Amino acid sequence: MRVLLIEDDTILGAAVRDQIVGDSHSVDWVGRLDRAAEHLDSAAYDLVLLDLMLPDGRGLAFLRELRRKGCATPVIILTALDQISDRIAGLNAGADDYITKPFDLSELSARLNAVARRYSGNPNPLVEIGHLQIDLAARTVVKSGRLIDLTAREWALFEAFVQRPGLVISKAQLEDRLYAFGTEVESNTIEVYISRLRKKLGPEIVHTLRGIGYRLGSAR
């Protein structure tokens, strides 16, 4: 996924960023709401992690405005406000989950992935495609009984297709998913990773629609 992290605490923000990157997602990290608005206007995000107390305003008002504008991107609130009334206000404002600080980074990963699965239309972490058994929670792929070793980038790319079966994904969308702002991407990077997936999972696992994008195929 491509994640927007809105957090002004540099120590916590760095820890969350590193956790997300370690989970094979790309992340853009900002510490102000005005910067967050600019990012949301210029890129498509799969999920937003939102602190409620920012230097230039309150995250709750920011979230309400996002929902008022029709933004359906899932949002998980990360905050030190731990009263029941705070949780209710956050969820009623349009948050998909609410995590109070301090929190365990592994739990954050699990909640992030759970929200992403719900939005992909399949909350079940277990998926079968031909001879492949995929566990989105454990981040594993088994082909005909054999565990397939995927690198972090290969998994991130493959997960993008699994979460959008039947849909065509453009090269630009795949690049956005794999890389944050400011990261230089070589022109053939996506093609290289798709070639690797085909070698490991089967030549038909990703179909190329020339000039349009790519679509999940089948495994043999």
Give your account of this protein's structure:
A hairpin with a 4-residue loop joins strand 9 and strand 10 (140-143). This protein is an alpha/beta fold and 220 residues long. The chain is built from eight helices and 13 strands. Helix 6 packs across helix 8. A five-stranded parallel beta sheet has the order 2-1-3-6-7, sandwiched between helices. A four-stranded antiparallel beta sheet has the order 8-9-10-11, with no helix packed on it. 40% of the residues lie in helices and 23% in strands.
N to C succession of SSEs: EHEHEEEHEHEHEEEEHHHEE
Number of strands: 13
Name the beta content range: 15-25%
Assign the structural class, choosing from mainly alpha, mainly beta, alpha/beta, alpha+beta, or little secondary structure: alpha/beta
Flag low-confidence runs.
none
**Major sheet:** 5 strands, parallel
Helix content: 40-55%
What's the overall geometry?
A: globular
Mean pLDDT: 89
Radius of gyration: 18 Å
N- to C-terminal distance: 26 Å
User: Largest sheet, order of strands side by side?
Assistant: 2-1-3-6-7
Number of helical segments? 8
